[in-house]
TrEMBL record:
Species whose genome carries this gene: Prosthecochloris aestuarii
UniProt feature coiled coil, ranges: none
Name of the protein in question: Haloacid dehalogenase
UniProt cross-references to PANTHER family, sorted A to Z: ALPHA-D-GLUCOSE 1-PHOSPHATE PHOSPHATASE, FLAVIN MONONUCLEOTIDE HYDROLASE 1, CHLOROPLATIC
Length: 194
């Protein structure tokens, strides 16, 4: 293995959608409604695939009957400010870069991607970024790994996906790409050193 495909959500950053929902919900009783409409399901998947523009997503959020009155800027900031670094992420990325080519691979939308790249310097110096909104496929779809193979120029046996979701691991394995299920940075480094 020469190249790592490194997930971002819950590997590099913790993702707190509840924080977003609480900030934009019309009331406490609307938090679950906001979560169901924007943080999971068809709308989120379409945004992550690049099928919905950032402007359309924010307008849909602003116009929704479960959300409070929001400006575009308020909606955008609430959507973006849901991240915090996972313990050990900086050291883990440093460890990987000393040994492998590192590509960040994430099912994400342009608002989250831009925020993450602006906020966290550990993304600097990456070999590349495989964001779902750019190529139109989530990691639960084989097309995402077809794209990863083309973008990296590596044969599948030279790639390893490190991700916290086992369903992504099943799909990447069907493409011949290795998989390491992320639990913590200490655990990940220990398993890579075996």
């Amino acid at each position: 293995m020469t190249t790592v495909l490194l997930d971002i959500g819950n590997v590099i950053v913790n993702v707190d959608f509840l924080h977003f929902c609480s900030r934009v919900a019309r009331s406490g009783s609307h938090v679950q409604c906001v979560h169901d409409r924007f943080c999971t399901g068809e709308v989120k998947d379409a945004f992550d695939r690049g099928q919905v523009s950032s402007e359309s997503f924010l307008q849909y959020l602003i116009d929704d009957d479960c959300t409070a009155e929001l400006s575009t800027e308020e909606a955008c900031l609430a959507w973006q400010s849901i991240f915090s670094l996972v313990d050990g992420a900086r050291e883990g990325v440093r460890y990987l870069r000393e040994r492998y080519a590192v590509w960040f691979m994430s099912d994400t939308d342009p608002l989250h991607a831009r925020w993450l790249l602006d906020q966290y310097d550990l993304f600097q110096g990456a070999e590349g970024f495989l964001f779902s909104y750019r190529h139109g496929a989530l990691k639960t779809e084989s097309a995402a790994f077809t794209h990863a193979l083309q973008a990296t120029g590596c044969p599948p046996e030279q790639l390893l996906l490190i991700d916290d979701k086992s369903e992504n691991g099943r799909v990447c394995s069907m493409s011949g790409v290795g998989f390491l299920d992320f639990r913590s940075w200490n655990d990940t480094i220990a398993r890579l050193e075996q």
